[in-house]
Amino acid sequence: MRKKILVKAPALSRSGYGEQARFALRALRTREDALDIYIVNIPWGNTGLIVEESEERTWLDQTILKTQIYVQNQGAFDLSLQITIPNEFEKIAPYNVGYTAGIETTKVAPQWIEKSNLMVDKIITISEHSKKVFENSKYDVANKETGEEVKGWGLQVPVEVVNYAVRDAEPEEVDIKFSTTKNFLAISQWGPRKNLENTIVWFAQEFKDDPDAGLVVKTSTACDSLRDQMFTENRIRGLLKNVPDRKCKVYFVHGELSTGQLTWLYRHPTMHALINLAHGEGYGLPLFEAAYNGLPLLTMAWSGQLDYVCRPNKQGKNFPRIIKVDYDIQPIQKAAVWEGVLQADSMWAYAKETSYKRALRAAIDKKKHYKQEALGLQKHILQNFTEEKKYAQFVDSLGATLEADASIATLKQDLLAIENPKERAAAAVETLQNLSLQTEKLELLKDLFKGESCYVLSCGPTLTEHDDTKLTTLLGDTLTVSIKQAYDLFPEVTDFHVYNCANYKNYDYSKKRPMVMEASTTPFKLGECDLKFFIRERNFDNSVSEKKNFGDWTLDTQSVLRPYGPGIMYEGVFYLLQHLGVSEATTIGWDNKLLPDGADQQHFYDKKGSEYNKADFIHSNEVAANEAAVETLSHEEKITLAVVDDWYDWLKAEGCELKIASRLNPASKKIARVEL
Fold it and tell me: Each residue of 525-548: pLDDT tens digit?
């Protein structure tokens, strides 16, 4: 069974994060044998969308549509991959991975740490720089509950690094008429971090008198609109006014360039180097692309680019193979401060003007030397950053077991070696806590209690008609499933707890932690549970009672959805019994009958041991005040009673004998009655 993974990402964005998203999706597609991929596309600032006719774009569109339909039908996922900044991480699935470019400074904001700790099980980032900053950012904070000061509070989830992969492309000519032969290239979105102002002005100053020097600037401020083009061009012209009478050329390129067009620029015979004076990079994708195309890099030996600009020498020591620009580490500019993202007290690199200008001259004067360095770096990258290697590394870094059968089988074997079923159940609960995916948990539980007997405690009035001490003793020796508030009466002997959104309350599992199953129409987790199921519609005509298609809804057939019963017994409990493999199940308090005295008599609430009092129940339950609801409940009673025999037959065919301990349940006498 393939595991359903939701990728929440700017998958269609023409941006660095958009490319990061598509890299991840390409990696996941290499394992479509194990992964069923779903995509929620999110916007990324004001960036435009990729516009292309390709197999990938068609697949993206189809997958996004598939996801919309699946989510509308309240489908659930085994794991999520969220490609964004940590402020936006969410707890979407049982297992969640945050995939972020990380940070270009020396410090991660506390909001990032808090969201990461609360919302995801793991972080994947794209460079060692980002990882180290995540791990090294520490704060002294106050405990929100106790007020006690906590020193050195920081990230508590693991971080792994996966670099991007090489993507080869055939060159496609760009419409630039070069009149210069000593050309340089700068590619980035305009903003405080990218430092394009100094890149352009210092270049113009250095080559003021050289008509053969040219700088190609590929940039935009927000999007690819004509308005943005005019705004950005005017911005560059304004900068160049500070260098009057310049003879060097500045070529402005605006709009989307294909991978092939970028390749053409990287490989152009007049291009001496790619310039990057950005204060910091999470990775620096244009630098990486230029490097694997053999173009020398004129940049600083700091931040994310160190993962790929270094190549080992003959002694095995790594050195940056770049035209080096010196820098100072200083606090970020006020204009770059972004509350919750870029800390005012964080720092990044500032290129030194004189060093930059010397590097520009060196790129020309030592062109042959730096070209040889670039070709050596290119060879290193082409060998070590292949799609095959990086896609496999990315999938492995998810931390999710895709081939779980062997390991789950081993875990199950260990549990089956425990003879006492209640001890086995307790051990199974502990084992479930270490499993991330619902499919794994269900595989572990399948037939784990084959041949065992079980009691099912329901919330009918007859639940409290038995001697508590004797019943507790009885349940203490036998597997016990408690439904909703029935758990409150017997928490210490309950092995499995099943609830839904009807009359929901928070449960205290401090006395003993059972295996907890939630089967509800709510699209979010109500409480602490091991198994989360959705009921996508409440429609009598499509209910399992009307269709009697019991076999279509077993837990190993439907790992996230439940049918409308109606009623939790038909929606979840019977299926749990079948899945566990129990041979005999006796219901206690399953009365399955509306009493004539009204809503307050339909449950045991307000009886001894219940924390859910009768007055609150009557107040919150629509049956008490809604005549239409009363009619609905009467219809529910009718169809659930009509199908009891069929359920009995199906369960028996599955190896489970159903018995009833209730003086009220009107089910046919073919179902044995039990005296406790």
Answer: 677 789 988 887 778 888 899 999
pLDDT at 101 over 50: yes
Residue carrying the six token digits 């609905």: 632
Contact criterion met (CB below 8 Å) for 501 and 528: no
Q: Are residues 333 and 187 part of one domain?
A: yes
Q: How far is CA 460 from CA 517, 627, 647, in A?
A: 20, 21, 19
Judgement on whether residues 140 and 197 belong to the same structural domain of the protein: no
Domain that includes residue 636, residue range: 420-661
Do 352 and 250 lie in one domain? The reply is: yes
Flag whether pLDDT at 621 surpasses 90. Answer: no
> Of 88, 73, 65, 75, nearest to 9 (Cα)?
88
Same domain, 235 and 113: no
Beta strand 159-161 pairing with 122-125: parallel
Q: What is the pLDDT of residues 225-270, one digit of tens each?
A: 889 999 999 999 999 999 999 999 999 999 888 899 999 999 999 9
Indicate the number of domains in the chain. 3
Task: Among 254-263, 319-328, 367-376, 648-657, name the one with the lowest average pLDDT.
Answer: 254-263
Residue 668 within any structural domain of the chain: no
3-state SS string for 368-424: HHHHHHHHHHHHHHHHHCCHHHHHHHHHHHCCCCCCCHHHHHHHHHHHHCCCCHHHH
